[in-house]
Each structure stands twice: as C-alpha cells, then as structure tokens.
User: Fold these one by one.
Assistant:
Number 1:
Amino acid sequence: MNSESETLPAFRALLSCFATGVTVATTVDDHGRALGMTASAVSAVSLEPPLLLVCVNKNAAFHDALTGNTGFALNILAHDQGHLSELFAQGLHDPFEGVTSTDGPNRLRLLDGVVAHILCGPWSTFDAGDHTVFFGEVRGGEVFDRQPLVHYRGQYTTTK
C-alpha cells in the first residue's frame, strides 16, 4: 500500500476477510424521533462492567443523536434480515416505516425477528479519525433462537 488512493481499497479488501455479525443500532434524537443505522463495527469490551462498543461515522445523523444521548440498542440481525441491513445503511429519514418493531426502555426501537436485543446506557466515547467509538454499558437484553446474519467479503451469509 503505497499511496492514499491505493490504501483505502486495499484496507477495505483486507477487512472484508473478517467475517462479522450485522447489527442495527437504534437511538432517539433530541426531538424523540427514532433513528437507526447498520453497524458491523461492534465489539465486546469488558465483562466488569459489561461494556461493548459501536463505531459511528461523524457525518451520520445517528452520530449527532448518540452524542449526549441516554443510550442505544443493538439489534443483532437474523439470517433472513439482510434487507434490514441494507435499509438502515441508506440513511433514510424514517427507516422504520414498514419495519416491525417495538419501543423498549427509553423509547429505543427493538426490531422484531432478530437474534438478540442488547440495551446499552452511555459509558464513554473516543475520537477515532472520521468515526467516534461509543462505549455502552450493557443494561439488559434478550436472546432469541434464530441463526445470525454474517457479512463476509462483501456478501451476506449464515453460520451454517
């Protein structure tokens, strides 16, 4: 990787070799409007206290809503929910239109048919280039008996 124009495509190609689960993170903005975004840059951080992280582009509306917010929910998508990943990646004004979901604690949207919901309160943030890493303290959640959606080399697959 010699020049900046070669670095980004090579970096993306390298990262595409790392299979990741796919989530939709949800929060509410200052006006009470539900927001969601597809997130694959998610990781467990600590068991004591239970912490995880999600990375959010600084230009995303979701970023502004999450800054100083009461928390977020992670909806771990099931094998048949690739369409939801695509929908929430588009940055639409109301991506929840036509999507079945319920309001969880703090009015965080919980998508139906997922593998799990994880509810997080704010913990800390860290500046990371064009993204901010948001650390959330896990405050609850629910697990369902479904197969996960996996993203690998630019395509959706399952663990089977």
Number 2:
Amino acid sequence: MTTKYSDVEMAFEMVSSAQLGENEAYVNIHTGETHWYSSFGDNEQELPDDITDEHKYLALPHKNELNLGKKLVLRFTYQFLPEEEDKIESIFRQRGAYQRFKSILESRSLLEQWYEYENKAQEEALREWCELYELKIVD
C-alpha cells in the first residue's frame, strides 16, 4: 500500500497534539486514506464503522510511543546542554515542562536548533514506523 508522507505526518501530528489517547488517526492499509478523530469534538467526518478492523486500518502512534517526547528532550539536553541535565530532568517531573524547557532554550539561543532536531527525529521515527508496517511512502 502506498500513501503520501505528508498525509501520514499530518495525521501523526494531530494524534501527538494532545495527550495520549485523546486524538486518534488511522491509515487504510488498502487505499492509503487517513481518518482522524478528536475527543475534543472537532471532527469533520465520522470514522468508518469498521475502523477497529486491524486487517484494514493501522492506528498511527503518538509521539511518546516513538520516544519523541521527554526522551527526545533529554537526548537533546545531554548532547547540547549537558550542564543543564539535572535542571531539565527536574523540570520534566512536573506539569508545564515543555514551556520551561523552551524558555531555557530561548535564553541560550538554541530554540531553532531544538526545532530542527525535533523535526529530523520525528521524520526519521515516522518513516521507520511506516517501514515497519510496510507502508510505502511517496513524497
């Protein structure tokens, strides 16, 4: 099955834009079509009745399921801010961690570098996930 990377990426970002389990997205493994559902109610169309058929649909993962949440932040920290390891590890034990993390990056002029690092890691992980599930991607 072939699908557009941009469709998979957009669906993945929608799933990852909320807490784990609040948003869902699926790829039809026969047509490549994506379907989305948000628990917040902004759904343009209903999910197909057979969306739970694992032989027909594949659920897109949340970023945390691909180690693109806290683990990615810590990898970035260990590489680019080793002197801030303890502080950032502590921040990520509390709510609102990303905002504080980004404030630290901004004060160090590393915010753009973070976004590039995060985007690259996301694309690599998402392409690996597609390959694992034999989704052929076209750009």
Number 3:
Amino acid sequence: MKRNAFILSLLATLLFCGLCLSQAQAGPTHPPKEIAGLLALWDKLNDRCRGGSGDDQKTWDACDERERTGDQLKARGWCYGEPGQFGYQMEWHKCKP
C-alpha cells in the first residue's frame, strides 16, 4: 500500500514538473499591440527621465509622462516588478491575480 502511494506521488510530481517545464519553454507571451505600444513609450520616456539633466524641464516632463503611461498600463492589468526586487530586476508583466 505504501509502495502504491509512493508511486502515485512520484508520478504526480513528474507530471507537475513536466507541466512547469512546458510552460517555461513556451517563453513569455507577447503583449497585445496596444500594450506593446505603451510599453515601448514607457521605455522611451524612462530613458529620457533617467538619462536627462535634473535641471532641464524636458527631463521632468518625460518623468511625468512616464508616470501617466505607467498608470495606463496598470489600469490595463500590467504591473512593474515584484515585491522585494531591486530596480534593475524589475520588468513590466501581466499582473498576477
């Protein structure tokens, strides 16, 4: 009886791991066109915001526009980073429930 339970447990684990691997190999899903456009805009604005001079109004305008674009992404169910991540680790992704 214990042997059967062990075999069933082993099979369930292998099946679960196989599903995880198949999802991981599938790669990230491509966002819809509208989202892809907002992500590209956010990246461009982020570069201007972070790379601009702190005493240039264009830098501040880019930062403000980046925040508005980020709010649009959030309203469409996209999140930036995960709790506990450092800034360099953060990416936009579909929010988890």
